[in-house]
Amino acid sequence: xxxxxxxxxxxxxxxxxxxxxxxxxxxxxxxxxxxxxxxxxxxxxxxxxxxxxxxxxxxxxxxxxxxxxxxxxxxxxxxxxxxxxxxxxxxxxxxxxxxxxxxxxxxxxxxxxxxxxxxxxxxxxxxxxxxxxxxxxxxxxxxxxxxxxxxxxxxxxxxxxxxxxxxxxxxxxxxxxxxxxxxxxxxxx
Length: 189
Known about the structure:
This protein is mainly alpha-helical. 60% of the residues lie in helices and 3% in strands. α3 packs antiparallel against α5 (72-78), α6 crosses α8 (147-163) and α7 packs antiparallel against α8 (147-163).
């Protein structure tokens, strides 16, 4: 693929993704998070590696990890965007054990919206409302994440899968209005 196709393909992908996240965040009353979502993707540290590894049907980060064994782009991105669970990890003192902190509600909900929007961007016409949930529960990351965060993201994505987007976003908005300043919340099934 030519440089121009990769450059404009990646630019289109991140613009489309950001627009979908922004539109969905606005529907949930999350205006600041919608406007600020993933701005780091335009930085040199993230944009150029993503152009280099752009394929169009999956994240360039996955390709960079496949080729190099790690992603410099991802290391930059996750450290600047609180809607990624990896932002909420740390080592316990001098211990080598990784500690995964429960994500505050507002960032966890942005993460759910991010997952929905990414699924739409990469799946295109094959997207279904089950896709974000199915992808999440089959991912390796749930074995590392904070168990409470896994439970909350699973619950909200399953709600989307079972009830449809319109009803899910109405529900997400009501949760956000009630809990936007809460560190964490508990869902009652």
